[in-house]
Design brief:
Shape: globular
CATH superfamily: Spore Coat Polysaccharide Biosynthesis Protein SpsA, Chain A
Bound molecules: 2-acetamido-2-deoxy-beta-D-glucopyranose
Strand order of the largest sheet: 3-2-1-4-11-6-12
Distance between the termini: 43 Å
Structural class: alpha/beta
Protein name: Glycolipid 2-alpha-mannosyltransferase
Pfam families: Glyco_transf_15
GO molecular function: alpha-1,2-mannosyltransferase activity
Helix content: 40-55%
Family: Belongs to the glycosyltransferase 15 family.
Keywords: Glycosyltransferase, Transferase
Largest sheet: 7 strands, mixed
CATH architecture: Alpha-Beta Complex
Length: 435
């Protein structure tokens, strides 16, 4: 410490104020300009309005269906949980629309699962076994090294990181599922997980509406990724963009947190940290929670996405880290989709684990249609929770004592910014301490 203090003192004597001040001013200006270069453009108009006015509609049963299916990956041991999900989606949506459900398993199906879920599903149900070659280590990964790494990751306590199957699942959902023969014939999918509840009636066809409005990706919940699951993912993605000359979209800007360090530090030091690009700017870790997705499989089947996935796959991070399909999908959407192609289903009530999104109900009979015979068909006793001015939901049943309503809205605000004219700079930090 003594030599450092002596050095500073001698510098102070040698470097006059008229040198220090301009350097500081230039540094500050550079930092501000850099932050401004990452600003998210404000769209000319709101780009992601709700598809319909608040509340319920009479389901339009005569309307042609989209080329779409539900997809649920489940284990034989998750029969009860799978039934919770299928009962819920049947009651809240599929009783009217009758879309098929494709069940996927990496093992042979238990006949009891097949017969019970086939009965629970209102539309057609198919039960597929995932081929080994899309649920195993690729040739360029040494299985022994990968297993050692998976074991070590598990020992750090990172959620699911010690389970080999979980790594295969993340890779499968990132780059493989939409190529399965059972799904090849469909364009749209709605992803389901065991033990999920839909908390509002969905009285329109989201597939048809997404198609009509040129959307490719729909989500309900946005939140932070666990940083330890993917220390090198963002850097690999950013390097890919640099190498391919992919220009950052407004969504990409929204997902990045510009560094506040001055140029030399940013470029040479910050860039060495996890979740940073080569220029030292950071990923916010914000992503869409992919256990709910309504999306266009052709987006993932595109040549760009496939090349991006293959590149990531070669890096080994699905096994030597625990890259999740949620992060991979979100980064790819930020990279290749126009913000107007992404839709937040704020009117769909959804619960998975302890996180949920559940809107207040739109007030009045015109919004809740208590006399509707078609809506009565979903086996419902009409006991929806509070109607509130400004509410948007259709017959939502929200138990707000039960968990976190969305995640403190930081990530949702951030990922929706490219689509909205609202700017809430001031309220973000406040929300963190006082949500
Ligand atoms: C599901 O049930 C239907 C109607 O009972 C039957 O025709 C079909 O073969 C069953 N599917 C499977 C996969 O068991």
């Amino acid at each position: 410490m003594v030599p450092l203090r002596r050095l500073l003192r001698s510098m102070r004597r040698r470097v006059p104020l008229w040198v220090v001040l301009p350097v500081l001013a230039a540094g500050t200006l550079e930092v501000l300009l850099h932050a401004a270069s990452w600003s998210v453009p404000v769209p000319a108009a709101e780009q992601d309005a709700a598809f319909f006015p608040p509340g319920c509609r009479e389901p339009d049963l005569a309307q042609a269906r989209a080329n779409a299916a539900f997809v649920m990956l489940a284990r034989n041991s998750e029969r009860r949980e799978a039934k919770v999900t299928v009962r819920s989606i049947e009651r809240q949506f599929n009783a009217w629309y009758g879309y098929p459900i494709v069940f996927l398993n990496d093992e042979e199906w238990d006949p009891a699962f097949v017969s019970e879920l086939n009965e629970t599903a209102g539309g057609k149900a198919v039960f597929e076994v995932i081929p080994r070659d899309v649920w195993s280590f690729p040739d360029w990964v040494d299985p022994e090294a990968a297993r050692r790494s998976i074991k070590a990751q598990g020992e750090t306590g990172l959620q699911h990181a010690g389970q080999e199957g979980y790594h295969h699942m993340c890779r499968f959902y990132s780059g493989k599922f939409y190529q399965l023969p059972a799904l090849q014939k469909y364009k749209w999918y709605w992803r389901l997980e065991p033990d999920v509840e839909f908390l509002c009636a969905v009285t329109y066809d989201p597939f048809v509406e997404m198609e009509r409005r040129g959307k490719v990706y729909g989500f309900t919940i946005a939140l932070w990724e666990l940083g330890d699951s993917c220390p090198s993912l963002f850097r690999e993605a950013a390097d890919w963009m640099d190498a391919r000359g992919v220009r950052p979209t407004a969504l990409w800007r929204a997902t990045v947190s510009a560094s506040w360090a001055p140029w030399p530090l940013r470029r040479w030091l910050m860039s060495l940290l996890a979740h940073r690009d080569a220029r030292g700017d950071a990923w916010s870790l914000c992503h869409y929670w992919s256990n709910f997705e309504i999306a266009d499989m052709d987006f993932f089947r595109s040549r760009e996405y496939q090349a991006f996935f293959d590149y990531l796959d070669r890096k080994g991070g699905f096994y030597f880290e625990r890259w999740g399909d949620a992060a991979v999908h979100s980064i790819a959407v930020a990279m290749y989709a126009d913000p107007a192609q992404v839709h937040h289903f704020e009117d769909i009530g959804y619960r998975h684990d302890h996180l949920y999104q559940c809107p207040a109900n739109a007030p009045g009979e015109a919004a809740q249609l208590p006399g509707s015979e078609v809506l009565a068909r979903g086996e419902r006793d009409p006991k929806w929770t509070a109607e509130e001015p400004g509410g948007i939901g259709c017959r939502c049943e929200c138990d707000r004592s039960k968990g976190t309503r969305n995640h403190p809205e930081y990530c949702l605000d951030r990922l929706k910014r490219p689509n909205t004219r609202k700017r809430r700079w001031i309220t973000w930090p406040l929300r963190l301490v006082w949500p």
